[in-house]
Amino acid sequence: MKLQILGTGCAKCNNLMQATEKAAQALGVPYELEKVTDLRQIMAFGVMTTPALVVDGKVKVSGKVPSVEEIKAMLQ
């Protein structure tokens, strides 16, 4: 599973990255976590507000940091 965190490195972006990692580890799924900070790449996903979580190429959430439980649901 490829997980991407889209954002410029703000506190919310870091929180989303940590929560996503916790959720993936809790589910025990193999994953690759990538942080995308380039604005052109972020805009290519159609994301206008960060942070955003992309799972296997699909934007699951943008503009907020969901809870670990919410992220688990997105990963299943």
Quick synopsis:
With 76 residues, the chain is of the alpha+beta class. Helices cover 41% and strands 25% of the residues.
Set out the fold topology.
Blueprint: E1 2-6, H1 11-27, E2 32-36, H2 39-44, E3 52-55, E4 58-62, H3 68-75
Parallel strand pairs: 1-2
Antiparallel strand pairs: 1-3, 3-4
Helix pairs in contact: 1-3
Which features would summarize this protein structure in a list?
single chain; 76 residues; alpha+beta; Glutaredoxin; four-stranded mixed β-sheet; 4 strands
Outline, from the CA principal axes? globular
Largest sheet strand order:
2-1-3-4
Largest sheet, described in full? 4 strands, mixed
Terminus-to-terminus distance:
10 Å
CATH fold descriptor: Glutaredoxin
What's the number of helices? 3
Give the total of beta strands: 4
What is the average per-residue confidence, as pLDDT, rounded to a whole number?
A: 96
Strand content of the residues, in percent?
25-35%
Quaternary structure type: single chain
Top CATH class: Alpha Beta
Helix content: 40-55%
Kindly provide the radius of gyration, computed on alpha-carbon positions and rounded to a whole number of angstroms: 11 Å
- The class by helix and strand makeup works out as alpha+beta
Number of domains: 1
Low-pLDDT sequence parts: none
- Can you identify the CATH superfamily? Glutaredoxin
